[in-house]
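Tutorial sheet, problem 5. The two components below are modelled jointly, 685 residues in total.
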Amino acid sequence: MPLLIIDEQACIGCGACVDVCPFAALEMIDDIAVVNDNCTACSACLEVCPVDALSLPERQAEAPGAVDSYRGVWVWVEQFNGQASSISWEMMGQGRLLANQLGVSLTACVLGENAHPLAEEAIAYGADRVFLAEDPTLRVYRTEPYSKILYALVREHRPEIFLLGASSRGRDLAGSVATDLYTGLTADCTGLEIDPETRLLRQTRPAYGGNIMATILTPHHRPQMATVRHRVFEVPARDPARQGQIVPVSVSLSENDIVTRVVDFIVEEEEVNLADARIIVAGGRGVSGSEGFEPLRELAHVLNGAVGASRAAVDAGWIPYAHQVGQTGRTVRPDLYIACGISGAIQHRAGMSTARVIVAINKDPEAPIFDVATYGIVGDLFQVVPALTAQFRRKLRT
Amino acid sequence: MLTALGGDQIARMSAVHVRRKNLHAIVCIKSVPDTTEVRFNPETNTLMRDEVESIINPFDTYAIEEALRLKEAHGGKVTVLTMGPPKAEKELREAVAMGCDEAIFLSAREFAGSDTWATAYTLAQAIRRIGAYDIIFCGKQAMDGDTGQVGPGVANQLEIPQLTYVFKVREIDLEGRSIQVERLLEEGREVVETRLPALLTVVKDINQPRYPTFRGIRTARRLEIPVWGAAEIEAAPQYLGLDGSPTQVIRVFTPPKREGRVEMIDGDSVDAMADALADRLLGDKVV
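Model answer (structure tokens):
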């Protein structure tokens, strides 16, 4: 993909650029300069063109002072099959607080097919304005059309803050949009605050597996972009009477312009959406085999939770990788995490230690999992877990 | 029949045969500290990297393995690329010992302090210099920064499609210039296809990375690895390193410890313990 832009109307076919190109990336076809993939955007040809027909894309930072012309807080509403993911509304709550503090409006970006109901939901959850892009090409998330629409909206309306969920899609999209915009992007934030003196967004995030926290600013580029971790911020109260403006966005891409096609979607038989789960029952080496997960599944079923696993259990082939919690799996933040037969290596704790309540069930009283647990039981999980399931069956029925 | 052909024709025929499309895969890797216990220099708020051994970012080993498997299936070569301080060259040699054919090392003062934007820019410039390729592999994220932003950044800079969180490469058609993969998303696996060249970031479950072989280690020791700086990749200096990075780390601190100690639940029987625990959890309103 050569970066060089050639104005074919202006080109006079003199060939000066072809002579100076160090990479043989230019040639004359029908008396007009044509660039090929050898182009490195080195700019050697720009100076020699007598009619200024050659240019490279601008990626200039905003000049000092220009950042002040950016106003407003934006949130991307992630949806799958027309359902918004909960992170979208969690961000709407925090976005509302930030917007109030800055004295600006809160805007939601809703992209999809027949997504009007989501736009109304966004208003109920706190948006003042919704940009609504509806098109068949937007039914399923794809990087290219989503990124192009958001890029164009940001360029036109210039928000100062843009939040996206730190989900697979959110990270995929934010990484692309921020690169195009040449602005700062902070991943997986667990803290977002406004510095009252500078109006800058203080973005705090864990790194090194949660061993350290870093606070990050984007001082001179706009918007200040961040992806936000699941279940850190509360979903705000939904107010169906709230008023807001829905602004339709025209979609100029056609299916033929998009190189990526989603062919199929395979949903595992078992629910493994760990990111959204309020309760996770997880098993480790102590589970001792794939059938050992059965009692954990029963407990998860009774509690309406999901089943997680440690790396040891996944590497042993007892359960698919999608269930893995920890540094090489998913980072989760449920209300309740029940660790069964998990010793609690630091890499596992990195993925779950911010759960609200942690229960550790382990034979070994010295297991490091007890250091992060709220409640601990020393015992055989094959006795304790079924007993706990029976207790909840009885107590939750009444 | 063959004898009836002139030498010229034979030469032309074998030229056609040789032109059969071979794969060129580029793998971007990162050297990361081999521990999660890291120390910071409080003066500069930067990592004190010299104290601990470094390793290839574990997620990147799956990227290397996938590239090597494609090379074995289709012929061709794998180029491994990293940006980092001088000692990160060790990780490049390890990748070569695993089977990568060529290595490029981006190491220069100008690159220091790069955030994900500047890193993606630098890697993309280097890839432009490397030349034609079919596929770029990255790990889904690095173990130290945990951002997962550099892969999409490189794809965007190069204006090629990105397929993140790839769990399986189903099909690759080098002549037809297309690829079909499964991506691991929160709700399940998405089957998606796109055009080549493309950038893939891979998750752990995609394969089991191999170990370096003795022969590979010998090759790696001898391999000459070019070191590229800003000049070699024709980079615009304002986009490099700290100056080119839109984000700025202003504070690094250790997270607050979990409050309180564990409450051990004892009891005469398993049922009594389960009963007590269930009551606590109902009382905490987490169930």
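Marking note: DSSP finds seven helices and 15 strands in chain B. Full credit if you identified this.
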